[in-house]
Every structure is written in C-alpha cells, then in structure tokens.
Amino acid sequence: DGMGSSGEGVWNGIRYDFSEHWFQKWCTILERKVGRRLLSFACRHHMYEIVLQKIFSMTLGETCGPDIEIFKRFKSQWKFIDHGFFRTAAADRKMKIDDIIQEEVLQFCQLKLHDAQPREDYLELLNLTIIFLGSEPPNGINFKAPGGLHNARWMARLQYSFKVYMFGTTSKRKSHKVFKLTAKEEDGFREFLLFAIVGGYI
Questions:
Q1: CA torsion 183→189→190→195, rounded to 10°?
Q2: Would you call 122 helix, strand, or coil by DSSP?
Q3: Strand partners, 41
Q4: β-pair type (13-16, 2-3)
Q5: For residues 179 and 169, is the Cβ–Cβ distance under 8 A?
Q6: What is the pLDDT of residues 79-120, one digit of tens each?
Q7: What is the dihedral of CA 54, 24, 118, 65, to 10 degrees?
Q8: Which of 83, 73, 80, 96 is closest to 181 using CA atoms?
Q9: How far apart are CA 93 and CA 91, in angstroms?
Q10: C-alpha separations of 104 from 55, 87, 121, 123, 197 in Å
Q11: In the chain, what is the greatest distance between 2 CA atoms, to the nearest angstrom?
Q12: What are the strands of the beta sheet with 39-42, ordered from one edge?
C-alpha cells in the first residue's frame, strides 16, 4: 500500500499488514524499483502482535517454531475438559483488576457485541472477555473448541490464554476434568491476561 506526498507516482513510504518475513522481502524489491529507502508503517494489528508476543515471552517464556506447546497440549485435551466448570478473574485473589477498569472493559465489550463484527474471532474474544470478568454475554455462556494455532496471530494467543486460564488449575483434586497447570504457568497466564485487560488490548 504505497503512500506518496511528493507528487503523483512518488513513493515515500509503504504500509503493510503481513508478516515481517514477507515485508522484508517485498520492501527490498520495491526500494530497488524506486531507487531509494522507504519509510515503513506496520498496520495496527501487526503492532499488536509484536508487543503481545514480547509480553507473552516475558510472562510464559520463549516459544520455538510457529506453534506454542502449551496451547497444543490444551487443544488436544479440550474434549476431556468439563466445560461447565471454569473460573473467572473474581475467583482469583491474585488477579487484581481495578473496578473502574473492569467496568469500562465490560461496557466496551457489551457495546461492541451489538455491532457487526468482521470476523468470528473478534466476536469470540469479546465473549471470552465478558465471561472472564465474571459477567454473561447476551447469548449465554458457551465456549468454542480451540481453533488454529499460529504464533503470529495475537488474537488467537489471547483466546487460548483466556481458555487455558479459565479451565486450568494447579489443584490436584479430581472432582472435575480440568486442564493441569504448573504454578509457574498459572502465574504466567495471570500476568499475561492482566496486561491484556489493563493494557487496553481488548
């Protein structure tokens, strides 16, 4: 997507919404074609991916390859989990979310549910956020089976994290079929989701 300000047909910058790998390849070709360096502008969704990936690495560790191992494990165990037994942020004393911020996020999500969403994953993220914050979406509480896994999709990373946290536990009690987490993993998901809520990623 070329942007020019020095006359018709003169490119000063390039805006992109694909992966860094493809951007580097095509930007090099375009720069050779126009004979000069171009200023690059990543789309806002790509910027979300970069920041969220860094926060995920800080709270849950680096990932190798395109997939995230704990998400693969969660996806493979989804059919064995009791989907009627889950926890919300309010049930976790360590999950400290300011009441004003929580109310603002809830109102925002509920408002956006009345708008037409361009993609199903947008809608799912709004519903997951509402459930996580202890409320109920207009269409009731239900959870979709985990979808595609890819390291680059910031929204998929959030969707999986909400589900892993809500259905995960470090408890050794066998009363419900839950997803087992280590204390370190639980702390990591707690911090990651706190950042997502408080940091304005919803």
A1: 150
A2: helix
A3: 15
A4: antiparallel
A5: yes
A6: 999 999 999 999 998 998 999 999 999 999 999 998 877 678
A7: -50
A8: 73
A9: 6
A10: 23, 21, 21, 18, 10
A11: 70
A12: 2-3, 13-16, 39-42
Tokens of residue 48, six digits? 């979300």
Token couple for 17: 């919404």
Enter the DSSP assignment of 34: H
Query: Smallest Cα–Cα separation from 82: which of 163, 176, 11, 10?
Result: 176
Q: What is the pLDDT of residue 29?
A: 78
Structure tokens of 28?
Answer: 């090099």
In the block, which residue shows the tokens 């165990």?
77
Q: What is the mean pLDDT of the chain?
A: 81
Torsion sign across C-alpha atoms 145, 159, 135, 44: negative
For the CA atoms of the chain, what is the radius of gyration? 20
> Considering the entire predicted model, what is its pTM?
0.75
| CA distance linking residue 81 with residue 168, whole number of Å | 9
Digit-by-digit pLDDT tens for the chain (202 residues) are 444 444 445 556 666 555 555 556 667 777 787 777 766 665 555 566 777 878 888 898 877 666 788 999 999 999 999 999 999 999 998 998 999 999 999 999 999 998 877 678 889 999 999 999 999 999 899 999 998 766 546 788 899 999 999 999 887 765 568 899 999 999 999 999 999 998 877 7
